[in-house]
Structure formats: structure tokens, C-alpha cells
Amino acid sequence: MHTWNEYKTFQPIVVQMLTNAIKKDRIAHAYLFEGGRGTGKKEMSLQLAKSLMCENCYDTEPCGTCRNCQRISSGNHPDVHVLTPEGQSLKKEQILFLQQEFSKTGVESNKKIYILEHADRMTIQAANSLLKFLEEPSSDTTAILLTEQAHRMLDTILSRCQKLSFKPLPSELLIEKLVKQDVPLKLAKTVANITNNLTEALSLLENDWFAQARKLVIQLTEALNQRSEFTLIWIHNHWVKFFQDRVQLNLGLDLLLLWYKDLLYMQAGEEEKIVYIDQQEMIKQEALRVSQQTVAQQLTAILMAKKRIHSNMNAQLLMEQLVLRLQEG
């Protein structure tokens, strides 16, 4: 179980506002937790529920071991309801169920909490039902709406919620979380520079594809350094066959960008920022061979290639042109 202090390391503003509200007994009747996947919205909504329901809460910190805390963790508390979309959307029937449940006396206390996941996915009927619910708040009811896309929600609902914005995880914290899940440091550092979303990072790492993609990027840079005429053949036989669609090709170019950024870090004496930590000797040798201006031109070439991915350009032709530009440096 996480504590408020632990959550504060990556969402300090949100934690400060919530803990202050708990201390002053000024909990809003409705909150909107808005932010990307993996930023801790649901975890913190359950933490708030525990703080409000805990039998042994100290200051703002729930004990985590009492009956209420344990049942909230397991999803079995009778006065804490978590609703997730049925299929692609939250339905009117789900909101009506909540209204019926909350019209009853609390099973074990006067407090009632409901958490709506993906609140932006409500049908129009569900949104209108929720709006009526929010317009007639009970003093002992707290709503927590979770969303990654607040702009898709009705303004009338947004205006009745206190909005708390969840920031992306800092890369250092994401790396730490990944390493704790037995992800090798070299992969953790790499994926943390591709995404700052823990869920997405774990998804990328769940099979060997990402590790193999990283390996191919290193092999490409080796071929480029050798300035071999066989580099174009290698692109055809290995790169194009591995990065088979636009999404994968874009990711491959992102990984290539990181390599050339590492060259700049090495040239600037900022080795601690290098992503390809297992290739530092090779990066050092290349950084001594080329100028910063050349590396900047190579980065520009990769960025231009990324833009052209979406122009329906043939992937092999795109990569052949990029290789020639990179070899010019």
C-alpha cells in the first residue's frame, strides 16, 4: 500500500490539495481526476476513499489494515462503488444503479463514495443522469470522476467538479518503478525516454519486441559508422522486415533519435543522461569522430523522416533516403 507521502513524490500538487481538504474537512462533493494513463488517478481515488472511511486514520493517512481499508482495496466495501464502462461506454443504467444505491441509508456509515472510470465514455443518457445526480449532491456523498480526455465531457458536468490535473511520471521515477519490476536498467532507461506512462511502458516491454527493436537500432548505427554499401541491403533484409507498420517504424525512429541525442550528451560531458548505457564506449568513439553540427543535422534528418511516415511514403524508400543522409555526416 502506498502512502500520501509516496504519492507526493510524483503528484505533489494533487496530494497537497487532497490532504489539505481532508485535514480541514472540506472534501468537495465531486472531483475530476484528469491525466494520462499510469499517472495514479485510480490509485489516488482509492487512497482518498480509504482516508475518508478508515477506522484508524492518523492525520490524513489511512492505516491500510482496518476492515474498511482492506475492503476498499479488494473492491468489496458496500459504501464505495467503482464503475467501469460496460463495453465501450458507461451506460445510463449504471448511473441509475448508483442513484438507487445512494438513495438508501449507508450500510455501515453515512459516507458514500463512487468512482467512475473513463468518465469521458458516458453515453449522452448516462451523462444527463449523472448531471442530475451532481446537481443534487448529498452532504455525505463524494463523486470521483476519472478521465484521460476531459475535453470530451459535458461542460455542465465539468463545472460541478473540482478538477485535479495529474502530471506524467518523471522519467527517473518511471525507471525506478520499472527496475523494481525486474526490468533491466538499459531497457528501463530506454522505454522511459519513449513514454512517461507506466502502463504503456510495461505494455511495450511485455514481450521481446522492444528489446529486439533497440538491438536493431544499435546494429544500424554500427553499419552507418562503417559507411558500407551493404547498409541499404541490411535495411531491406532486417529493418523494413522488423518495423512492419507506421507505428512500429515511428518507434524505431524514436529509438534512433535517442542514439544521436546520446552523442550530443557525450560531447557536452553529460554522460549521466545517456540512454544507451551499455554502449557508452561506442558512443564515445563516435562522439569524438563527428562534430556537434553534424549530429544536429542527423537529428534533423530523423525528425524529417518521422514526419514523412504519415505521407504514405514507402517505408523502404524512406529508410534508404534517411540512411544516405545520415552517412553524408
UniProtKB/TrEMBL annotation:
GO annotation, cellular component aspect: DNA polymerase III complex
E.C. number: 2.7.7.7
Record-level Gene Ontology MF annotations: 3'-5' exonuclease activity; DNA binding; DNA-directed DNA polymerase activity
One record GO biological process: DNA-templated DNA replication
UniProt-listed InterPro entries: DNA_pol_HolB, DNA_pol_III_delta_C, DNA_Rep/Repair_Clamp_Loader, P-loop_NTPase
Keywords from the named record: DNA replication, DNA-directed DNA polymerase, Nucleotidyltransferase, Transferase
Reactions catalysed according to its record: DNA(n) + a 2'-deoxyribonucleoside 5'-triphosphate = DNA(n+1) + diphosphate
Domain DNA polymerase III delta subunit C-terminal residues, every copy: 251-327
PANTHER family, per the entry: DNA POLYMERASE III SUBUNIT DELTA (PTHR11669:SF8), REPLICATION FACTOR C / DNA POLYMERASE III GAMMA-TAU SUBUNIT (PTHR11669)
Name by which UniProt lists this protein: DNA polymerase III subunit delta'
